[in-house]
Every structure is written in C-alpha cells, then in structure tokens.
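Dissemination and training. As part of the outreach component of the grant, students in the summer workshop were shown how a complex can be specified as a set of sequence lines and then modelled as a single object. The example used during the hands-on session is reproduced here so that future cohorts can follow it. Participants entered these lines:
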Amino acid sequence: MAVINLRQMKRNQTGIITSVKAQGEMGRRIRDMGIVPGKAVTIQGRAPLYDPVALRIMDFTLTLRNNEADYIQVEVE
Amino acid sequence: MNTAIALAGNPNAGKTTLFNELTGARQHVGNYPGVTVEKKQGTCISEAGTFEIIDLPGTYSLTAYSLEEVVARDYLVNEKPAMVVNIVDASNLERNLYLSVQFMEMGIPVCLALNMMDVAQKRGIEINTDKLSELLNIPVVPMVARTGKGKKELLAQVAKGIGKPASPLLISYGQDIDKALDEMEEIIQENQFLTDTYPARWVGLKYLENDNQILELGSTRDKETAGKLSGIEEKVSRHMSATLDTHPEGMIADQRYGFINSVLKQNVIRFAYDRNRLQRSDQIDKVLTNRFLGPLIMVGVLAALYQFTFAYSALPVEWIEGIFGWISGVTDAVLPDGLLKSMIVSGIIDGVGGVMGFVPLIMFMFLGISFIEDSGYLARMAFMLDRVFRMFGLHGSSVMAFIVSGGIAGGCAVPGVMAARTLKSPKERLATLLTVPFMNCGAKLPVYALLVAAFFPRKQASIMVILTLISWTGALLVAKLLRSTVIRGEATPFVMELPPYRFPTLKGLWIHTWERTWQYMKKAGTVILGISILIWAMMTFPGLDDKTAAQFESRRTAITGSVQADILKEIETADKDTELSPKAREVKKALAGINGEESMAGLENSIAGRMGKALEKISFLAGFDWRTNIALVGGFAAKEVVVSTLGTAYSLGDMDPENTDSLGEKLAKSPGWGPVTAFSLMIFTIFYAPCFVTVVCIARETGSWKWAAFSVGFNTTLAFLLSVLTYQVGSMIVQ
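and obtained this result:
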C-alpha cells in the first residue's frame, strides 16, 4: 500500500482516492464529478499525446489534465 | 397559462431526448433574458394535463462558476416552476444524484426520471426504485426516454405532485459545518436576510461554499449581516484547515457524495457484474482513442463527412437550381423590361436562389455533425485534441466552439461564438471567440462549392480537406499569437465526461438538423434578401449619364440603320428555337455585344462599381477584380452573399436572358479567372472580417465593441496578406 499522485498511476491501475487538494473552481469541478476521498479510480487510458488522462470512476469515464491530476492523491496496492 | 415544469439533468443523461419526447414539434428556442444561453420551451399535452416544459441547461452542479448553472439556478428561484423533472442516468446513478441533491437542498419539488433503465439492466445494475423514492422522499419513475417507455407514468406523477409543498433536504456536512450552519441559519432568520427568495439554511450553505453570486447579492442587500456570515465562514475555514487539512467547500461536496452513498447502500442499488468491467463503449475507445489509430480515424471521419455531404446533396442541389432557373426564366418572359424586372430577376430570384440552392448541402452537413455529436464522438475529439489546443493557449473545450463554428465545415460562427460561453477562463474564451470565425462556416461553403466545382472539378473532397486544414492552422496560430501578446494568462481546468457511445435516434438527429438548417434558411430569407436588394440597388444606381447612354444608342442605330428592314424584322419576330440567317445572326451578335458593354459600363459607374474599382488598385495583388471586390464587400453582411453578389454582378454585366448557365460555368469562362485566383479568393474568404451578425455577437460576448472592431480590422488585414501571398506564389508556380 502506498499513496501516490494520480499522475503517476499506470494504465489499468486502480486506486482509492485519499485526498483532493485543489480549491476554488478547479476543486469544485473535480469534486462535482465525483472525485472525492473514498472513491475508486481506474486509469483507462491517455490521449495520443499522453495528456489528458481518461479515468473510470463510479460508472462513467472522466478526463483530466495531468497538471490537474497532480492535486489528487491515491492509495494503490 | 399552463403549469410550468422545468426539465433538468446532467449533460448526456437524455434530457434532450426526453424533451423531444414530451413536447414533440410543439417547441421553440429562445434565450434566457439578458444572456445568450439557449432556452428551449415546449408544450406537453397529455392525459395527465397540459404542461409548459422548460429545458434548463444541462449541468453537473449548481455552482456560480458557470453561466449555465447560474441561469438554471436563477430560473428555479425566480420563476418558481411547479416542479423540476430531474432526469438521471440510471446506469450512472451515483454521480447524477449529486445534482438532484442540490435541487433538494434548495427545497424545490423534484420528480426523478430514472432514464436509461435498459442500459442499466444490460450492465447488470439493479435499482430498487421504490426504496430510492422512500429514502429521498420524492417520486421516482423508471423510464427509457428513447422509446417513450415510462413517459405516461412520469406525467401522472408530475400531475400528482403539483401543489404539494416540499421542504429543503437537510443532510449532515460534518460536525463543524453543521454547527456553523445552525448559527448562520439563526442570524439569517433573525434579519430576514435574502429569505424572500432563498431558504435560510441554503444561504448559509452558499456562504460556506464561497458562492460569488450569493456573496455579492448579500453584501448589496445587508452589509452587516453579510459581514457576520462571512465571519463565521472564515472561522470554520481556519479551523478546518488547521485540524482536517481541508476547507468547507471541499467538505460539503464530499459529504453530499457521502449522503448519496449512504442512500444507495441501503439496498437501493445492486451490481450483478463487476462494476468496473469494460463496457462496450470502453472497448470501442480502445480503438478510437488509440495513440496511433485515434488521430488517423479522426481525419478519416472528417473526410468521410465531406464525402457524405457532397455525394448525397448533389442531386437535390441540382433540382433547386433547376427550379430557380425556371422561375427566373418565366419571370423574365412575363414581366416587361425595366427596373422592376431587373430587380426581381437579378436582385431577388438570383439572390435567394443562390442561397437556397445550398440548403440540401447544409442539411446533409448538419446531419453528419449531429450524428458525430449525438454519438459521443465529439467529446473524444476534444479529449484527443486538448494537448494540442493547450499548446496554442486554448482549452480542450474550445474544440466545441470551433466545431460548431465550422471546424467540421458547415457550422456557423454565431452559435460558435456563443458556445465559447462554456469556457470559464476569460482569456481562453476571448482567444476562442476571436479565432472561431476563421472556421469554415456553412455560409462559406457555397463560396467554396462554387469555386471548387468551377476550377477544381473531381477534386472536391480533397480541396475541402485542405481548406479545413488551412483554417484550423490559421486559427490556432492566431490564437497563439493573441495569447502571447494582447491576451496573456494562465490555463483553466479540463474536467470532462466521456459519455458512452450511443447510436443517435433518428428523431433527435432530425430535430437537431432541422433546427440548424431552419436557422440558416431564416437568415437566408431575411438578411440575405434585404442585402441582395440593397446590393442590386448599389449596382444599378446612379446608372449611365445621358451622354454615354446616347453614345451606345447611336452605335446601335448605326448598325440597325445600315441593314435591310427585313433582317431586323427577322430578328424581332424569331423565337429562340428558330434558325437565323447568317446575316441576321451577325447583326444580333453585334447588338448583344454593345448591350453587354453598356451594362458593364453601367455597373462600373454604379456605387458598388466605383467602390470595387477603387479597391482594385490594391486588390489586383491578390488577383481580385472589381466584381470580386463588390462580392466581398457584400460578404460582410453574410458570407453566402459573396455567391449571390457574384451571380448578380455577372448576370448584370452579361444580360443574356437565354443564358441559364450556372454561375460556376460563367466564372470559368470569364477572363482573369483561373485556379490560382479561385484559391486566393477561398483563402481570403476563410480569414477576412466575420459577417456582421458574428461581429455583433463578439461585441456582446466580450462586452466591448473594441474586440469586435479588432476582429474586423485584424482579420481583413490578415486575409489580404495571405491571399496576396497565395496569388503571387501561385501565379509564379502556374506560369
């Protein structure tokens, strides 16, 4: 078990969100889409230029830029 | 007045489908007062009653960060609809309920339309709707909006629920916040602070969330109470960041999800399969967003769209051209010669015909775009292109504005400029607003179609792909230029859903296509007609002075006087199918030549002709003669006017009523025209000043005429430089 940054996760890797550091609008946008502590995320893939990243959370697919993923800490196996 | 029902929900939850299902053809599109967010409204007549359905903008939340959310919130608060029908995607329940919770916090009566039950079932998601209804204390109706299943039950529930009071949903946001809320609620109640419009606890919640709209409203209404509330917020915020390393806004969102989770856990939802099992959509994405295949497929989709549009619209375009040619012929035969006939044939019929002839093309194009949009592929394009857009100082969401404007040719810069409203950062938005007019909008297509058909036959699809690439490259480079000079600044968040791929419904596609085509036709029918007549007038008046007219007349008399009377009689009496004698033919040709010269002289002397002539002094560098100049000036009204004006210019300059050749053939035969000139004109059309409707929109969206004026001046200068370059280099290569 280790806590890493969402950016460092590999394709198909799953983890549990431990914290979201972003505030203000970005924080709100991220949380509104269900990225809150306790939820499981799986990296589904990356865009052709490796950024943004597509991730699976709850029952849908969400995209985030790498520099936004930096605000999200994830606990992985 | 019918009972007002608001329809709300997340994007991609099937809101539009349900709206169409409920209202059918009884709908109209307008704007919310004062803003350019689209407001769709329709009447629903059913056994349960007649309702006025208002389609609120699709949102994920109700913050004050985006205009759509503020508009939705304001509508609910100010108009007080009898009920909110909140459509939620059953296959994605947890996140969809986040918005529902926010409606319930406001104390608005909500009825949950649990859509896409079929999709959920297929994925092995079982939902106990009765239990969900009981726990949330609101009606829940399972349905499939695409097939209309559950619609009757939904309306019955709506009818039953109207008039029943609802009270705000109270949930716990954690000890610290709950305590602060209690304290705030008391102060708010005591001072009647904003309680005429909002529930007391909700106002407190917004203060804790640092909601700009409510904060501003509060401090203008009652500065003292506002100050007290802000004080409490600051205290909690400090305490939370010290003890929990978080802040109220984040905590509130977390707790809303916590509440939803606790509801769902009470046997409301059950997953028969692994929840994270790959869906069909994900498998498709493995190919469509693949690093190597993805971009290739994207280019292929673009090319296919062009091919589809051109191949299938060719026949109906021919029909419409035929119809207008016929009308023109009949009018010409029926009406006596003179100004009225000239105005009707050259001003009205040619003008409207030139534009209407492209309606089928535009319909097919919109059909293709709607398919891409409704299927979910458009979001993938934004995903794949974001990195690129960011390089140019734009946002992945800019792609929407670009595509609506004609990034996939055939959009319109007017809705495109408005689509840029979804962009939050003012700088990225401004850069998008100023560069979307470079896209190939539906009105530029007639210009390209005309020139490509006349000068690049059999290469239509490839030329159109090239034009698309040129407009994109130009727009992105200009965006970069603007973002590193006049509008410098930081980037904004890119949080976007990739909706599951869905096969679009025919009804949805049709309504979508028809709406956009109708907008185009309305514009064509009104603005274009007016402009066409105006331009006809500019090209007709002041006409030739008496002396010059007399010279032409005397030249004619010289010819007619030198030949025998029977030949003149032969010419006069002959109808168009009769074979003339060689002598008569010669005389007729000479007379027609003089008539042509006279019309030409008249046009040169007209207001437009003088303007075109004056501009010719510099426009020759780009290969444009005065006729083209007149057409381009007209194109400022709307780009499709370029075509109708060229039509008018050439049919006036060469008044041969028998000649019903299409304009393209006429151009191809005219001196000074060739592929290089045509290409230079297409380049100019891509880049020069947006049509005045777009300019007005830019002024309104940026809130300043300065940017509107900038876009006219800057774009025209840029266009001129580029087309001069094209013409000069092109001429060298061709020779």
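The longest helix of chain A spans residues 24-32. Students were then asked to discuss how this feature might be tested experimentally.
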